[in-house]
Request: fold
Amino acid sequence: MVIWPIAVMAAVIISQRLIELAVAERNRRWSLSHGAQEYGAGHYRLFFILHAGWLIGWIIESSKAGRLSEFWPGWLALFICAQLLRYWCIACLGNCWNTRILVIPGLTTVKRGPYRWLKHPNYLAVAIELAAVPLVFGAIKTAVIATVGNAALLLFIRIPEEERALKLLSDLNFSENKGKQLEDSEQELQRET
Reply:
């Protein structure tokens, strides 16, 4: 029977999500206190719906199947790798990590850790998790539906919104730097005369 492995995995994931939401809220308050602006708030609830549906879906589908997948050790290993990647992302972003799109003027994008190689490594970790967890229990339908839903939300809504926000940040930082350079040049000219 797979009831206890399902219960353990569900408890791990629910605990992770609650801790991550608490960290995200703490980081949101920190970011706002440092002048952050939020972008894309309107689509945020869609991710809650996706993740709640995913959790309920694989629990129900797995309970009906009543067995682990033949390949469960591989899927579990993939899930663990996704968690390592996710927490590496969180560590690299520090106070700037969030489940929301928050942009702090004056900061630049992170280029260390997994961000050296991938633009959105945290999204990769989540995508792997959404597929791997259901597949541990042979819940293929949930894995496919969640993966397709997540890909649609990311590719058509979230990433374009995040890219627009980062472009605004880049433009703002460029303008501020140009203004500072102009101000510095004017001060230098005044000193020379």
Q: What stands out?
A: The beta strands are 37-39, 101-103. Confidence is low (pLDDT under 50) at residues 178-189. DSSP finds five helices and two strands in the chain.
